[in-house]
Specification:
heterodimer; A: mainly beta; B: mainly beta; seven-stranded mixed beta sheet; 11 strands; 0% helix
């Protein structure tokens, strides 16, 4: 089952601009995570936000979580060409063994 | 401390052959997850294993696919009698915890299966 859905599917911006990606999910969660995937590579964990948190920062990343709307956003400030990648949100699905479910991702392209 | 190791990185099989993908989790991690990814798509959950146990295999096709995580050695995802539709990247992830507070997953670089 697909828990998180990212929006937009693709995003193209100029270097230095901010990039905002959104994620919506369907069921109650314990936490929400964001991952990054460079082309042809594995996923790398960026940040985790718990259900009782509303906002979290890590360097140029800012994540918000609105459990009433079942949505999260990832903001990358002052983007760089090296930020070009796919970004996925992931939530834990509390059925059976608490597996982590990923959305379809947002493909970000940062032009130099 | 080596990360999650997957091999082979690339595998080519003809229809009807078997594909065997291996994953060695990070040291100290006893929880392993397998995901499948088609080009330009997200990761689809397949199976979650803990040492010697399958915890959740709800994403695994009922036929031809199997997974194991023995007490010793890597986790193995086995696809029998492969078909063209099995062509995809298969990612393994591990974590030191499972259940309610699984937290961060550590991913390997994936195994790319091409079925001719």
């Amino acid at each position: 089952s697909q828990q998180g859905e990212e929006d937009p599917q693709a995003l193209s911006i100029q270097e230095g601009e901010n990039a905002t990606m959104n994620c919506s999910y369907k069921t109650s969660i314990n936490n929400l995570q964001w991952y990054r995937q460079n082309s042809g590579r594995g996923l790398v964990h960026l940040i985790l936000i718990r259900s009782n948190e509303r906002e979290k920062h890590s360097g140029r990343l800012r994540v918000t979580l609105d459990t009433s709307k079942k949505s999260s956003s990832l903001l990358i400030t002052a983007s760089r060409a090296a930020d070009t990648a796919s970004y996925f949100c992931a939530t834990d699905e509390k059925t059976g063994g608490f597996k982590t479910i990923f959305g379809a991702g947002t493909r970000l392209f940062v032009k130099a | 401390n080596a990360g999650v190791m997957q091999n082979p990185r690339h595998l080519v099989r003809r229809r009807g052959q078997e594909a065997r993908l291996r994953c060695s989790p990070m040291k100290g991690h006893s929880h392993v997850y397998w995901y499948r990814q088609l080009p330009e798509e997200g990761l689809k959950f397949m199976v979650y294993l803990q040492k010697e146990n399958i915890i959740d295999e709800s994403g695994m096709p009922k036929e031809r696919f199997s997974a194991e995580f023995p007490k010793e050695g890597p986790s193995i995802l086995r696809i029998q009698q492969v078909v063209r539709g099995d062509s995809a990247a298969y990612f393994c992830a591990s974590s030191p915890r499972g259940g309610l507070d699984t937290g961060e997953l550590f991913f390997g670089e994936g195994s790319r299966l091409t079925v001719l």
